[in-house]
Structures
1.
Amino acid sequence: MTAYILRRLVLLLPVLLIVGVVVFILVHLTPGDPAAVMLGPEASNEQVQQLRDQLGLNDPFYIQFVDWVGGAIHLDFGNSIFLNMPVTTALWQRAQPTGLLTLYALIVSLLIGVPAGVIAAVRRNSWIDRALMALSVSGAAMPSFYLAILLILLFAVTLHWLPSGGYVSITDNPVQHFKRMLMPAFSLGFANAALLARLIRSSMLDVLREDYIRTAYSKGLAQRRVITLHALRNALIPAITVVGSSLGALLGGAVITETVFTLPGMGQLVVQSVLRRDFPVIQGAVMVIAAIYVLANLLVDVLYIYIDPRVRYGNK
Amino acid sequence: MATSEVTQPEAIRDARRRQPGLFGSISPSSPWYWLRVLAENKAALASGIFVLLVVVVALLAPLIAPHSPTTVDPINRLKPPSSAFFFGTDTLGRDSFSRTIYGARISLLVGVSVMAASTILGALIGLVSGYYSRLDTPIMRVMDGLMAFPAILLAIAIMASLGPKTINVIVALTVVYTPRMARLVRGMTLQIRDLPYVESAKSIGLSDTLILVRYVLKNSLSPVIVQATFTVAYAILAEASLSFLGAGVPPEIPTWGNMLQDGQRLITRAWWLSVFPGVALFLTVLTLTLFGDGLRDALDPRARER
């Protein structure tokens, strides 16, 4: 077990290194002088030179790379050009909305996806199964920002039930916080719920065909008990693996959702930084989000072993 | 147990029965049987027809659009939908219906270009990686690294460096979707390369290139086609997201993503500016995925039995 985790951690290093290389190269993909591009057309020659020095662009390529990797290991991504603060500080300030939004969206997708999948499987080929699966296919094709716009149109513009955007910290005012996070969490989590529902349905159908389910029925257990205690517990196992990859989709989607609902998170910072060409921030944010994603996937895989003792990694 | 209640002979008899329609006479033993399966799948057929409609609309945009998509008409600004302006007008008095029609062009251009580029590149990388064991690990590590980014985030980061241009959107999304195709083709190659017919092709002295193209690629075509269909849908969605965020196609070009960005800004004053381009985007992505699902069921004999 420990050996497995250690091996996975070691295998993680090349992936993270390549992620770092990609992020490092990003700046150098810019046509022309990155420093001039960042400062815009009005900048003087001296300003450009100064920024080139600050970013280390005058150093040889390999030194730049070593510097960047060395910094990234210590979570030092340099200073933001626009915000006048270290990138890490800027990201840290923006961590709460993004973290909570992703968490809420995950909860929303589980709360909708799991029951929908179970109901569809239990009532296989009924009208409710067809309706749920049609909804699931549509949900997966629904762009999250379009769903967000439709929700704003209905609940903010027309009904005036919810504010159309903005963020209140959970510690400042929990009620306002949840009111403002309801639509973002739903619009971000819905596509994921749709995916999850389909997955749970098919794994539920597999499980319901097992002998132990028949045994459970034949010893006279009520359907509700068989479904929740015997079937769902086993059907959830394959679903856990996708939670890891959903987290990536949700973190990526948060970039868009935060922009729609003007939530001051890391995603919104990325988008603003793209428009301002604040490359150190983009690099830092992309690196951090990718690393979280990779680590979350590892965590999910490890969790998987704990939950399903039949899976034995490493020792065949 | 529950799924295969129909016994085999019955299923075959059922499939052999001549169905009315264009492809009804194709027998299950024909290599074109998948066409019949596809045509008999109502959702897939309807979706295919809708996608075809979008393609026609995009190609004939100048003939279909009632107004110019870019002409400014201050007198008719922010007009709600009417018989003159089906989808209303924006702040500059531009006809939203015509802009939606022209938007299909960019969506399809990006979708199809990204699909073609990532399929060709991905197939190439996947074949090489799966066939030559020594190259496998380094190539797949790079692919893993690229897939460690949430797709949209990597696209945004690349767009930040390249700058907002349509061609750059295609480049960025090709980088995003190539590793996924490469992984698929590599998996197929690993399965196929040890099969007896590849061994016999080797033993009669065929070149690696010939083996890869004639045997390996040809036999992994079905999943590649299915994946390519989904890639069109993903790329269209991603382009719209990028444009919506202001990091995609330049704002002066009418695209669904750009229109939705305008629409959100004016959401309290003009609901029509966001609702209609969104419906176009949603339906296009939805029908492409449904068509892809149908294609998968038709091309994969194992999925067909269910």
Note: The mean pLDDT of chain B is 89.
2.
Amino acid sequence: MTQLLRKFVWLGLLALVGLIAAESMARVDDSIRSGTPLLATPSYTDLTMQDSLGTRGRPFARYEKWKLNGAGFRGREISLTPQPGCTRIAVMGASETFGYAESPEKEFPSQLADSLKRTGCYEVINTGVTGLPLTGQVQLWENWVSRFEPSVGVIYASPVFYLSNDPPAFQTHRQSRPSAPATTPSPSFSPRLLARLHDRVHYPDFIQRGRVMRKIASLIQGKPKGWVYQSVPDDRLALFREHLDSLITSVRSRGAEPVLVTHAMRFGEQLDGEDKDLLRAWRQFTPRASENVLMRFEVEAAATVRDLARERGVPMADVASVMTGRTKWFADFAHFNDEGAAVIAQCIASTVRQVRAPPATVVLAASR
Amino acid sequence: MLFNSFVFLLAFLPVTYFVFWTLPNAKSRYIWLTITGYVFYGYWDPRFCLLMGLSTAVSYTAGLGLLKWSDPRRRRLLLIVPITADLAILGFFKYANFLMDSFGKVLNWAGAGVSIPHWNIVLPIGISFYTFHTITYIVDSYRGVIKPTRNIFEFSAYVSLFSQLVAGPIVRFRQIEEDLERLGQADRTRWLGLGISFFVLGLLEKVIVADTLAFFVDRNLAQYQLLSTSSTWLSMIGYSFQLYFDFAGYSDMAIGLGYMFGLRIPINFNSPYKALDPSDFWRRWHISLSSCLRDYLYIPLGGNRHGEWKAYRNLFLTMLIGGLWHGANWTFVIWGAYHGLLLATYRRFGASWDRLSPVLRQISMFVLVLFGWVLFRSTDFGMATHLFATMLTPTSGLAVEGLVPYTLVLFLAGSWAVAGPNAQELHMDWAPSRIRFVGLAAAAGASLAILLGSGASPFLYFQF
């Protein structure tokens, strides 16, 4: 009995040693590969910050595969002014633009740069910020992005923010100080090993489905009747149009040429089992909209972008008509995979070339 | 399936191990090893199991024939036909497109203006390795070095042994014949600790050292045209160590797995960067391949038995073919030729070389090997030429990404490779002890943490 107990204690000690080594190695590995401080508690939110300029990328932030430059944009360092003879393009948007699911340097602004540099001197800045609606993009453009003197502003707006309980609105209160970086040493211990395990382990579909359904049920529990949209809310669609219109005006007011891009999603007319699961998962972020409304809203928002482009004479890349429903180009509901990012980059590149034909002098300066 | 994947570590290995040791006799264990070998191989693409099955059947039948007949003509036929069949399969899958592309280029160069089609052939993983296994079996049977086995299960277990199936070491039948024969009486606990220790050390070499180096090296070499001279040197030094720890790690895992199943698989790396001359290097690097090249190619070509010049020629040809074995690309052929030249030159001027101080010889040998790795790593001659040009003429350009952590990792890995003990030396007089198990637990935990972070990366030698 005592011998058996000793054996268990010994095995427990070995397991403890293994765990300590694993946690230490996870931290060293994070430090080597992404520069995360050993004692920090990193998270995806480290990549964004709020200051007097609005919500933007945190300069030099790093988290896993994502790295920001000194201006808080994804990609390599850029100068304040474009190279002489080069066309600088700012790509604005949320996580789809920032590049959520693609491999590093495969997010669509990067591939747009690759595509354009074959024909001339273009510099592409990825100013996308995860979770940033159009209102935030207006603020970011006015206060920060326009300082880099882009001559083209590509706008890839996510309509889904307009289905959340509180629709996007222009901020009246501005923070004067940057929020504390989340990568500073945190007093609370958060095991990196557990985070890695969480990233790696995929629940079986039926468990994941149950979790999502329970979460949605808890989000809509106790809400008054009619809280869940049964049809596309016209007021929200109008708000989306209004904010997009503001951004067009803002881009033009700084002397840049806006380019609109219709928003694409994975879901087409026919949905298979995986699509349905993903659609339900998407709804977690907008519990007010049923799955059907979510899809219809996307379709009508794309139509709104087309209308607005026509009315205001803005060049447009109709990505939605090319990509929506083509599941192989999406990593989830609206985020692209590497292949999908290449497709949208090609679509935008051909529109940009029409807007700004390549200059005669050709210098390689594509920002990535 | 990869040794460093979770499906292998958490499902395949435990199931294979526990079922294996509950089986009562050698025959059932052979069958189990065969089944698991095919599952391991088929996990990648089940279609190619047929290819391995065919190769096994042909070689086994040839072995039976060699056992039965003593007539030299029949025996020669039994040598030539199965080897030709094995080489034809290998040639088709590995070299058909390469030969046709090269032929097309020559024709176009001559102004013929013809278009040679490119076939969509998938290269079966590990085909070069198991083809070597079967060929060495047939040749050894023909030479009378081994007595071919009548037991089909024993032979199929040898060919499809998952630990050495897809990336070596190239284990000759005679090297594990004794252990295979005694598999029914093998003691589970005898080499278990040793096996685990080898496996964990190999995992550490692969996952922590090689993959961390690869993280930097791959990113830097992806933009090799833009690198400065120092960055190119640093990247290529990193690649030299990455390749070593990747392949040595795989080999050590294979050796460890062998021990766990009662099979002693021979050493494949013996600190190659401690080599003092080209001959010494090939006695230390991929030992199972270089010894096969020596025994089945260099010596049959005449070795050094017919004068100096023929010895140079044989060395050169052996290494040229060895280069081609690595891959269907002219860069590999030239890499092989380069090493053939090094060996021949050393044979001619070795006496002068040996008078240099050991430190100087070790450093010089490392640099010479590193030049070879430039060819080995390059996807084409354009890349190789560019890398050589940047390394040999001062060029400004991009600095290495992540210079500080990369240099630190490079220093640690380099120190281990150049001056530290190798797996074999670390396991000299191995005996279970508490401190060893604590070390193993720490190494396993650290490796798993990396695997959880970045996932299982393929071994570089899988492509061969």
Note: Residues 200 and 396 of chain B are 42 Å apart (CA to CA).
